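fyi for ur records
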Amino acid sequence: MDPINRLDQVMQIIGQQMSERAARLEAGVKQAPSNPATRARRPSLTALKSKVRERLESLDPDDPRRSDKARRIFLESVLAWQFGNELLLERGFEDIVTGVQEALRANPAVDAKLGRLLRDLTA
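which gave:
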């Protein structure tokens, strides 16, 4: 399976996990809507892949938290790509990313797919 197909699968899982997590967040934390206008102007999947790769390459290879940071970079980038960069400014965004990251970590099969995808992106 190529990295683009894995990215697609991981994005679907992230979307589902994010929706479930957002539904459980405290009142007052808005879930960013996914509207057709946002989807129409978002960059291509190839552009997303390049952006993620660039951000991953900036991580210190000797950092003991590199793996967690890489996952967070990936999630932030994919969520902003999927729902629009304005999501990055939403109150509660950090909580959403943390929740999705925890949900992915709790599912070993999905976490392993994400790990393979991140390795492919940095290879």
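Residues 26-32 have pLDDT under 50 and may be disordered. thats all i got for now
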